[in-house]
Amino acid sequence: MGGEEARLDLRLVLPALVAWAVLVALVPRPPIVLVAVGAAAAVLAAGVARSARPRSEVVRGQVALALAAVALVCLAGGAHVARDRAGPVAAWAEQRAVATVTATVTTEPRVISRGDEREPLVVLELRLRTITARGQEARTASPVVVIAGAGEGWEDLRWRSTIRAEGRLRPTDPGERSVAVLVPRGAPVTTAAPGRVLRATDHVRDRFREAVDPVWADARGLVPGLVIGDTSLTPPDLTEDMRATGMTHLSAVSGSNVALVTGAVAVLVAAVGVPLRWRTPIVLLGLGGFVLLCRPEPSVMRAAVMGSVGLLALSAARRRTSLPALGAAVLGLLCVDPWLARSYGFALSTLATLGLVVWCRPWGDAFASRLPPRAAVVGDALAVPLAAQVACAPVIVLLQGSIPLVAVLANLLAAPLVAPTTVLGVLAAVVSPLSLPLATLLAWAAAVPAELLGRIARAGADVPHGTVDWVDGPAGALLLAALTVAALVTGPWWRDRLRRRPWEGCALLGVVAGLLWPAPGSAGWPPPGWVVAGCDVGQGDAFVVRTGPGAALVVDTGQDPAPVTRCLRDLGVERVEALVLTHFHSDHTGGLDGVLDVASVSSAYVSPVRDPPDVSAATLADLTRAGVPTVELTAGDVLEVGAALVEVVSPGDRPVEGGSPANNGSLVLDVTVDGTRLLLTGDIEPEAARRVRQMVQGRDYDVLKVAHHGSAAQDAALVTGTRAEVALIGVGADNTFGHPAPRTLDLLRSAGMVVLRTDLDGDVAVSRDEAGLVVHRRDG
Hints:
Strand content: 15-25%
Radius of gyration: 28 Å
Helix content: 40-55%
């Protein structure tokens, strides 16, 4: 019996993983591609099932099942994408049409701080019902994302309410779920409130927030996050510390919270003597209520499903059924929402559950066998975070480019605190409509373990060498996954060998420590925590804003491909989430091939001024051949590029009179990233600079990219008005233009700016630490 229980049923989970991988690649494609692949997979599945080859019945069955799974998710995904893309919304977004829409609110509004004096932004998603633009009206179910200013009423919208609004449509980046971005004009009008059940849950959520409001700051963010999925009150620095310690899943509703709530309901109904036949319906009713309280959005539904599978994994009686249940859950969720395939949250939740299913029980038993009987429970407690961390590590590397060594210890210390925080928080939420004082008392009780959770995260983030830098991007994830599999497969062999020759284990441990331990003074390039870098590409511009691990916003490419290739490779950039070509002079576009060779480029953004015509035509043709979607930007456009928020300041709708049309048509970007604000000015001359000055008046910047390589043609009021601390100049040594001009350098220094110039300093970078901005020079 024990040997039978130890065997895991992989027949459904392997096809589910194959189908997931296929959907990751195909879901951004046109629906016809998904349907075609799904139909082909269905035909092949039927053929393989009837075929006599491969000879092994098990192999044949697995291949047929994998093809059937691919067919299922692709056909379902094709139906979803076809529904989303049907209608004229995408075309009107490309035309930047002004539209009036009626729509249903499908996510909670999120308020995003810009990190400066400007009003925060409100971001939410809508599912359209009707849209009117260009004198035409259409019925559609396209999803759109709204980016609005705070204070206009968008932050007060209720989930699942129906609204009417007017705004300008803008295209989204390729591969996004949303078909368009709606930049509203004015406040929305609510035409239909949510149903009674949803209004009741809204009331509970509001009262619960009131109950939690008096508690400590960290707990005030964590308790609503764990109970109702509201992370808006979590301090930003705590969010970063939880990410650094691998505790992000504890800052919002996850499968573990679902398992805790359903487990608590199951224990309660058993304790009060509810008849056996009623227990499962009551537990399911409790699960449904918890999901409604958290909002049945895709992330919460995923957490509910994975939490249920996790309960099976931790149950000795049902462990064998948990792996088929996981495979069925993955397929079911992907059929309901194919975009989950590309969600990091879905990947982490699925892999964590897989780790619990496969390793938690055997590792817990192995740990327990080496501990005294009274301490055997510690084995299971250690196995849970270790199994989840091992399974999730490759995805964590994708997200943050490092391995949090402190994660297992931090999660082990945090584990006993999650249950009381969640259960007491849910009780506070349930009681809050009846008695706010009692709910506040329960909220304080939940706040005690929640505050300890926050302190564990903060302490873990401060542990020296608590994280190990790793190879960024997909290459790093694949490398870590391969090493993990190799370690697990060869583990028993190593264990037996090290028992016989322990000195080999000491030597191996020393080699690993030598490879991973950071050597003093060898930080190299790029500097830790860099925010923006200027590449030494000669007489030209190429600036890189870090938007995530291995990802960047690249602004211009310099004259030649080789220097920008070297620069991006040295910075560890593998994904260019947005390539901005400020204008079409060759010293800003000539190195395009160098960017395309070294990194994948998601989208290119260009100026509407096509001057000079030959260079602009050649550049756009190169982007088309490379398959890079190209979007034209004008003043007022707002982009979310990874961790960066980008506002286009110039050019506007009217051309600038005087000066160089190409230079004055440069895209000027206001970029906020990692608490740092940048003004990137292309090659604008005084005529355009005066307009930019009016647009950015009153804004404080940290970094100014000096216009036109530091030429003498500067608008002094704009330069000094930015109040920047650092000035970056992209310029070539011994150039014949006299750049940068002495009087421009004097202007920058008199404004109190530290000047970094690529002709003298080589590659340059700006990072941020607790004391503020730090400048770095890499002498060329």
